[in-house]
Structure formats: C-alpha cells, structure tokens
Amino acid sequence: MAVDETFVISDLGTATIRKLRNRILPLLFLLYVVAFLDRINIGFAALTMNSALHITSSQFGLVTGVFFLGYFLLEIPSNLLLHKIGARVWIARILISWGFIAVLTGFVRSTPQLYAARFLLGAAEAGFFPGVLLYLTYWFRRREQARVIALFMVAVPISGILGAPISGLILDHVHWLAISSWRWLLILEGFPAVLCGILTYFALPSRLSEAAFLTSDEKAWIEAALAREHEEKAGQHPMSAWQALSHGRVWHLALISFAFQIGIYAMFFWMPQAIRGLSHLYSNTTIGILGMIPYLTGAVVMIFVSRSSDHKMERRYHAAIPVAVAGLAFILLGTTAIPWISVLLWSFVAIGVSSFTGPFWSMPNEFLTGVSAASGIALVTSIGSLGGFVGPYAIGYLAKGSGGISKGLMVAAVSLFTAACLALLLPNVGRREVS
Hints:
The protein has 435 residues and is an all-alpha fold. The protein has one domain: Growth Hormone, Chain: A. The protein is 80% helix and 0% strand. It contains 17 helices and no strands. It is globular, with a radius of gyration of 21 Å.
C-alpha cells in the first residue's frame, strides 16, 4: 500500500511539473525573446546607424553600455516591488513601458539623444530578468531549476536566430516614408513588447491561488513541495532582504555575473560588425543569416547541458566549463579572418555563454527563498549589469585603435575565464538532493 501511495504522489508531481512547464514557460519564453531583441538590436542597427549619426566605435560602446546603468539603478527595488505587488501586474508594466521607449528610440536625432534613450530603456526594463527568476521559484523546486531556467533562457539564442535575419532584411529593404531602415528596425521591433505587456496582464498568474489550470490536488502538491524546500533553506540560512544583500555567497555570485556579462554582450553587440569585417561584399541580410548560426548551435547545446546539470544536481562544473570554452573561442577569433572558421568560433562562444546560464542561475535558489531571494537575485543581476556597461564600452574604446574589434574581444576572453575560475570556487551544494 505504501508503494502505491508513493507511486501516486510521484505520478501527481510529474504531471504537475509538466503542466506548469507547458502553461507558464511558453509565455515567459516569448517575453524574453522580445526583451532580448529590443536590448541587442542596436548591434544590427549600428551597421547603418553609426555612419548616419557619426558614431565612433568608443561612442557605440557607450551607447550599448549605458543601457545597463539604468538597469543597475532600479533592479533591486523593481524585484522587491514584484514580490509585493505580484508578477502579473509588475511584469506587464515593465513590458509596456520599455516597449514605448524602444519605439521612441527610433526617432533620435543625435548621439546624446541615443544615450538618453538607451539609459531610459534599461531603466524601464530593469527588474524583468531577476523578476522572472524569482517568479520561477514560486512554481518549481530546486531539482527542476536548471532545466526550467534554460528553457526560459533559450529565448536568448532564439532572439538571435529570429532577430539576426529579420534585422538584416529590415536594414536592406525597409525604407518606408523616407525614414531610414535602422530607425524602422528599432520601431518595428519595439511594438511587440507593448502587445506582450497587455497579454501578460491577462494571461500570467501571479501566485499559485490564481493558477486556474491546476487542480486542487496539484496545487496542494506543489505548495507542500515548495514549503518543504522553504523550511529547509530557512532553517539553514534564515535571511531577511537586507541580510541577503550582505551575504558573502550572494556577492560571490554577483562577481561571477559581472565577469560573465562583460563577455556575453561582446557577442551580442559586436558580432554583427565583426562578421561584416570579414568581407566588404556581405549584405546586411547575409550578415544576419551568418549571425543566426551561432545562436542556433547555442540554443541546442544549452538544453543538454542544463538537463545534465539537473540530472547530476551539479552546478559549478556545468557553469565553469562552457564559459571557459567561450573564452578560448574569443581568443582564437583574433587569430583568423577566414569566414567559416570565424563563424565556427562564434558558435563556440554562443554555446559557452548559453550553456552557462541554466546551471548558474539555479545557484541562488540553493540557499535563498522568499524576500531574500527577491533581493539576492536582484543584487546578482544588478552587479552583473555593470559588466554589461563596462564590457561594451571597453571593447568599443579598444576597437578604435590598431587591431580593431579583435583586440577588444580579448577583454571578453579574460572576463569569461575569470567567471569560470570564480564559479569553481563556489561551494557545491547542488548534490544535496531534495525530496
């Protein structure tokens, strides 16, 4: 009889987790595709925008980086408000506000105006990513975290797979109403955020009590499972929001995130220009198609790495090894100008940075819960966002000298190696299996 009861509970849990994944993750995935597209499409716009606005490489580095200053300033308060107000209302607000700003960015007339628009875009989007990470802890246990986060974050390479060719086509073919194609690129790719914000308000449940798609037994099961984890973490590490902000491991994770963000945005913002440098014969459409290949390979591999991380309940090596591979690929990119080799190396960069995300972003949930998770996760992403400012600006500054972008990419390589080393120094608590 006991065996049958265990089987029923296990079967109920499996069905509940599957239903949660199928109902919650597709919407969050869509939102992050839109978010990342609006964040990185400036890299493709630069192919024609920089000459139109007379933007130098160092100025472009600041254009891309200033986004993260706004992100940094509002990350923590935004996440605490989400925890208090509810995800449905707050995430919808974030989407609608950044969508309008993304559209307005297409109407800037000078570099200073572009700086301001990018800063406001970061401020508007602040809290979305850490908010979703916090939101996922309301629904999924530790043992599902890496795969669930990877399924959400596969939106990053997917945004590249979709955005790269679409952006190239817009740049080559959309010149409506005598408005420059780079402006249309920013305008057209900003509108979906507003529509998705409205969809989020009506479709995203904030809490378990609002999940009409779950039965009462399924709600009871996930509530009990999450309560057990909460008690376990609270018993080992009872923390308030302020205590989480001063916790040593939270700052350790924040430093890893800082180093990682320097590397990852080197790919997102500079890869289109690096590909263009391979041949003056490439059209914007060709650059978009070639830029799609690394994102596609990264999307496939990151799912397998996250599944392995959850299966083995191991996080450190599953985060450190891929990001070290990406760092090595950045170094090798400076040694070749052969197109197919360069695209292959960019693919290894994409594989490394994409595969890092699931295991790494599972780590805060190993010891944070409730309001401490809200503040701790926000601190990690907030400090990390400073890497998003430092990296593109440093690469842009170095790219104006001899060696061009290749010299700047060495900054990304060193940063990713640093992230790998710091990850290996973390305590490996993932193997403590939870029931």
